[in-house]
Amino acid sequence: MIDFTQAPLKFWLCARISFVIFQERGKTFLKKIAPRENYAVSNPGNHLRHLWKAVLLSKALALLPVSAREIIPDNSKTFSLKNQDQMIEYINQVQSSWKAGKNFHDDTPSDYLRRLASAWISEEKLLLDTHEDGSEVTTYTSADPPAEFDARKKWTNCPSVAHIYDQGSCGSCWAVAVASVVTDKICIASKGAWKDWISSWDIASCCVGGEKCGAGCDGGRPDKAFEYYVKKGIPTGGEVGSNQGCMPYEIKGCSHHMGDKGKFPNCRSYNETVVPTCVKECPNKSYKTPLNKDRHFGKRVYHVKVGDAKKELSEIGPCTMSFQIYEDFYLYKSGVYKHVTGAHIGGHVVRVLGYGTENGVGYWLCANSWNPEWGDNGLFKIIAGTNDCNCEQYFYTAEPKL
After folding, report:
1. Domains in the chain and their CATH numbers?
2. Residue 390 falls in the annotated catalytic set
3. pLDDT in tens, 52-82
4. Which family does it belong to (predicted)?
5. Which of 103, 348, 371, 391 is catalytic?
């Protein structure tokens, strides 16, 4: 028998991965087996050899605190933007910090919207802020960072810094954010000499293994993706259709609200089914460098304390931010976002480019990965100093090895 009280988080993660892999078969199995309180999982039979993990979900979930349950989002809940007009009107009436508006069609598929928020946000800070001797991981040259900062204005010789990515219908925000930060950091460290792109598709495809890293388009952990960069290395790869690097991204984006005038197919009829698969050769056959010779490695990965984030951003470069998102975040158009209304959807990871103050409100400047049609040309500002949506708990980055 399994003692669910000993390691509920571990079993919760196993159960969620079981649902990801087996989908409806796992759900059917859970419905049949979960009510049996004394069900023994030690020998469920060959035909149920893998599916037994699904039963752990109903048992373990009840034992977890709310914050731990949010590590992997529950995509079974209904989420729709059919009533977004009313929510937009309400948000704009009750506050003036940010403006809400339409970024998606009313009938954008729920599955597409939910996959945009699939990050696993761990409560454990596995990456130390100090070395074993107690010294700080990173030493900054300035005691006082500038009052406001925008990485796009400082590192103009690195085109990746200003680029807005598109994760498409894949829950790969964790991989896209990490790859984009690594791309920026290599270019910055090389003083603009390196202008390639690090492959987010490789991270989504190969940095897998449940709670240890990720599950492709069903979410993952940015801290573990950075560790993957240090230990395994990541090849080059641009966006879908770019023909850049060894392993370009493979999932097309879709136009959110532009109708037939958008750059991509309309999200209302979007049906992308590509599944990330780890490969041993460069998918881009026109790229001449072998995959095993194309990997770029990091020296170290570290957690940036919120008190050091401004120094990190202004001196060294972008980092990732992990936070919880709610329905109202999908409606952001401009201003300094703070959660107003709507249900919790899941975890999300973005790239932080800078910080500043707008109308007396401090903010973090972030680049989203929902293409330039979303928000403020793909960017958003989120309130600083209040840990809104837990946005100031998990800043991660890495130092490249040139």
Report:
1. 8-64 (no CATH), 84-400 (3.90.70.10)
2. no
3. 444 444 444 444 443 333 444 444 456 788 8
4. Belongs to the peptidase C1 family.
5. 348
Look up 368 and say whether it is catalytic.
yes
Select which of 158, 173, 207, 254 is catalytic: 173
Task: Encode the chain in three state secondary structure.
Answer: CCCCCCCHHHHHHHHHHHHHHHCHHHHHHHHHHCCCCCCCCCCCCHHHCCHHHHHHHHHHHCCCCHHHHCCCCCCCCCCCCCCHHHHHHHHHHHCCCEEECCCCCCCCCHHHHHHCCCECCCCCCCCCCECCCCCECCCCCCCCCCCCEEHHHHCCCCHHHHCCCECCCCECHHHHHHHHHHHHHHHHHCCCCCCCCECHHHHHHHCCCHHHCECCCECECHHHHHHHHHHCCECECCCCCCCCCCCCCCCCCCECCCHHHCCCCEHHHCCCCCCCCCCCCCCCCCCCCCHHHHCECEEEEEEECHHHHHHHHHHHCCEEEEEEEEHHHHHEEEEEECCCCCCEEEEEEEEEEEEEEECCEEEEEEECCECCCCCECCEEEEECCCCHHHCCCEEEEEEECC
Q: What single-letter amino acid sits at 307? A: G
pLDDT tens digits for 305-361? 999 999 999 999 999 999 999 999 999 999 999 999 999 999 999 999 999 999 999
Instruction: Write down the catalytic residue from 103, 284, 368, 371.
Output: 368
